[in-house]
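SAMPLE LOG
Freezer: B-3
Tube label: C17
Construct: single chain, 168 aa
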Amino acid sequence: MADPGPLIEPLIPALRRYAYALLRDHTAADDLVQDALERALLHWSSRRNDGDLRAWLFTILRNLHVGRHRQALRRGAVVDIDEDELPETSAGQDIVLETRDVLAALDQLPEEQKSLLLLVGVEDFSYEEAARVLDVPIGTVMSRLSRARRRLRSIVDGDRVTLLRRVK
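STRUCTURE (predicted):
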């Protein structure tokens, strides 16, 4: 097929959703998706025609993210001293606060567990598809996913316990 656009275009919303789940910043997620699509188009001729296009695109996106993440770790944390963030909470925002807790707990997971949990839990990848994206055996996917879920649950439950204090 000469024009890959019709094949790629329906997958862009899922790529954006996954990128946003990894980065939690719409601008950075859009940049990551754009870079992944640029790389995919650049290497379109070397793609296996019998392979899963969705898995191939998610693999490119994840590999770009991991590379950038490693690069950021080498560079160190970026701190904006001019930005003063005040906590904003209004009545009835329990769900928003719980979601923030889960997202914060998700950020505490190792990258391999976080990205796998997002692929299977958010993007609805099968274990086999996730194994292809991550280039690991399916048994590794199952064990990592089990450890990720257990660790996420313990982090979230642990946070709840520390928030409740006994008052005498």
